[in-house]
Amino acid sequence: MRWMLRRRRGHGDGGGNAELDARLSEAWEGAAVAVGKMLDLPAGKEALLASSGPLRAEDADLRVPGGLTGRVARQRRRRLNLPLVAGGAAVLTAAGVALAVVAVPGPGDSRTGGQAVDTAYVVKRLDSALGAAEPGAIAQLTVTSTGSAATPGGMTTTEEWSYGAQWRSATSLPSGHPLFDQGFRAASAYTFVNYEARTWARQAGPGRRAEPVPRVSGSRSCASAVSALSWLFQPQLPGPGLPASSRPSTVASALRAAISCGALTEAGRHRVDGTNAVELVSRPGSPISETIWVSPGTYLPERVVVRLAFINAVLQRTADITWLKPTAQNLDKLTVPIPAGFRQVPLTEAGKVVP
Amino acid sequence: MLLGDGTRSSLVGEELKRVNPAEIGTFYEREMPRLVVFVTTRTGLDIHAAADVVQTAFEKALTRWPTLRNPRAWLYRVAQNEALARCEALRREGPIHLAPDRPDPLSAALDAELREEQREVMAHLRELPPKQQEVMAWTLAGFGDAEIAEVLGLSTNAVKQSRYYARRNLAKRLGLAGRDSR
Question: Residue B93: which of A19, A86, A297 has the nearest Cβ?
């Protein structure tokens, strides 16, 4: 390198230290080589040259693939020039999701290629962010149910926390009156509290198993996505009698399964809790009717709305999501408290609704 | 620059025909990874974001390539400025609920690719005081004192001084202080 050569000729800037120079140079070049392996350089180069018409026309080997405009090709390559990272299974999967969104537009989709590309980029970042948050953050959800199929008595609100194999949900009426509180903790297994019946139950055992939700790109994953969202948005259960392993392992994994369906498209930006969030909506005809607002800073979802249609009813569930660090105070939120004076009963009786 | 001026823009288009795509391609393949390392070191952006910024900088550079006196320095400066602007935009767009305690998957994969000694050096580079880090990053990217001074708006003596302190700091942190080879 120039500055090192000059120094060796006696024009250094003081502090001559050959070992330091060697280590700096080695680390810098090593990082560049490693980054070079991660980037899809041929695709990036192609996109770069595609951004210039005159250049593209001069070199047949570097032409844009047929059917793509220069702008779309540029955006596509720019957004997707990072997929092939050695050992990064999550990133590879994310790229698969992204490509599925670009290559297989849903029926009736009339959006431009550019929008599809932006969608692919956001979905890819969303998937990566959820993958990173999955083991290390507590997802705190406030789930509100509305519509004609909501719980008898009207709208309910459920606070839900998810962290690794641990999970808790507390459902209450709009008045704030609690209905149910239940959760799995690795140490104490499953706990259920019925505030209406003033009873509680605990089932010893290993607690909920952390089972990853199966994820494959393309429409084949939609069945698991529907299943995952169904569990994610059905927190008020009742839990008793439900096999512990039947729920998805975490909120993050459920959301990853939902987006892997590949039926989302970007619908602009909207303010959500003070953030200019990116809105992703499911395409017409998708097996899931959902809207996800993604933070442009963290690419984590901030709000998810799912609409379920029954024969004569509609149910809409809205989840506002906060991602918490696993501090001692936040971990306490995963504990189901047993109110004083409540009676312990067998689990099979605890879920009975008081007439 | 020249964009927005119809006459000049068309001239740029004509001039671009004289640019050899193969040379540009080779330049891109050589500089792209280095520029990503440069941007991540300077700004702390993850590799996804850094690569996006760098690609944009390349596209900007290409449109005015023949008019640039020092295209490589121009490219690095634009990438750095774009990255800093993006960091500022992200900061303004808060609140961010989760401050990541660990790097994104690609950055983690990069760390996995590097040896422990290399990771240590890169970490210390990122922790240098801003001016020292800036001069050191430009130096490691292969720019000379005069180029760095021009880009950063400093005198060459100021560049040398910042690099002197940067290297002294790094030597101390890496346990290499006092191993003067001269």
Answer: A297
**Residue A3 in this model has a pLDDT that exceeds 80:** no
pLDDT score, position A110: 35
Q: What is the pLDDT of residues A23-60, one digit of tens each?
A: 999 999 989 988 888 777 877 787 777 766 544 333 33
CB contact (8 A) between residue A78 and residue B102: no
Q: Which of A38, A59, A78 sits opposite B52 (nearest CB)?
A: A78
CB–CB contact A20 B170 (8 Å)? yes
Could you tell me the fold of the domain covering B114-174? Arc Repressor Mutant, subunit A (1.10.10)
Gyration radius (Cα) of chain A, Å: 26
Q: Which residue of A has its CA nearest to B35?
A: A32
Please name which of B40, B71, B45, B70 lies closest in space to residue B140, comparing C-alpha atoms. B40
| Domain assignment present for A304 | yes
Full residue range of the structural domain in which residue A288 is found: 134-350
CB proximity B73 to A under 8 Å: no
Decide if B139 touches A, using CB distance below 8 A: yes
CA nearest to A136, candidates A265, A320, A326: A326
Residue A128 lies in a domain: no
Give A283-335 pLDDT, tens digit per residue.
776 666 778 888 877 888 888 887 766 555 666 778 888 888 888 888 888 88
Q: What is the pLDDT averaged over residues A119-142?
A: 78
Q: Residue ranges of the domains in chain B?
A: 1-102, 114-174
What gap in Å lies between CA A97 and CA A81, rounded to an integer?
14
